[in-house]
Write a structure and sequence with these properties.
alpha/beta, two-stranded antiparallel sheet
Length: about 425
Amino acid sequence: MKNASKYIYKDYTETYGRIMQFNKNKQEPIHRWYPFVEGYSKEFIQSIITENKDKNINCCLEPFSGSGTTALELQNLGIKCYSFEVNPLMYLIGKVKLETEYTYERTLYWFNDIKETRSRLSDIDLNSVFPTLYQSENRKKWNYDESVGQAVKKLDISINTITEKIYKDLFTIALAAILLDVSNLYRNGKCLSYKKNWTETTLSEADVFEKFDNKVLTELLEDIKNSSNMRTNISQSNKEYLFNSDSRYAINTQVPDNSVDLVITSPPYLNSRDYTDTYMLELKTLGFTKDNAQIKNLREQTFRSHVQIHWQDKANVENNLLKSTLRKLNNSAKDFEVWNPSIIDMVRLYFVDMETLFNEIYKKMRKGGKVYFNVSNSAYFNVQINTLDICASIAEEIGFSVNEIRKARYLKTSPQQKAVVDKLLEGVIVLEKK
């Protein structure tokens, strides 16, 4: 694939191809507590710190915390990290993983308390404001069978009787981690879909309890016991610098100007994917979003990389590369049956959000500070959107120097785009405030 970019592209596919996915974290202590879908492994963070070992890195910034990989790894290295996450589930996961005060004894005490409390609970009313959440005679499809719903509710109620907040949060995430597995759903790319033969697979209440218990015994208790010495010796706690806020606007108030040495982040990709949908089961089940109005409000606070909201904002970025891309999209879209009229608005506003973000990052960084920005190109209407170059160009116009763009790996395009745009480059833009 030829690259007509003015930027220096370097091939890091051998280095990054194996560490740019969260899958490598799924067997790692503490990281494995929740089966996150997006994001990179802890090795990616470590590689960047090693690369900058000669620099004096005291303070980092992560605008899209996700499950907290960056802040946790930096905490283990004694480096302060401001991080932001708008999704309340992800925020809680990050907070739980950053907590340093757990003890094996108290974790075991509250685990036994949960088991005792749930055993005393009788059947529970499974009515919900979300009509397809639990099995009902009036529904053809539902997320949880009756027996599973009873078990999940009993666990949720038992966890909420815990009086020590750090343990209530810990066990809430343990429950969140098994919900998809015990439900009738699976994560299907951009959304949740029903499992094949879901009507033929049934779990009992005891099955659900067993899955929860195994999660606690083989992961939480084991990791807390084995990490006791490390947590005792941690010199920097990043939990207090994790904010459940929209980074586009919260960075300005929470991070001092000229204080950040390093940014490591991966924003939402321009793939029309609403990450709220990806975790909708957990958000609804555990009360993070109590009704459809709260779901809509959460979507409105997210980076504009999706079309679940009909975006009304007319803002634009005065960037020639983006303007050229938008013209191509508008021309090409005339030949397509457009599945959503907001797609081109989404593309435009995605880069408006990028400009806002880069402006905030630039103000907060010290001279000589570096940004490692992991993002992927996209394609719509058979037009490739060179997200890497456009982001680099916007950052450059704000004042950053673009050191290089590192090729990480190639992603598949959608079936609709494959004939013209065969694959999409995911890469890491390396910026510096000179």
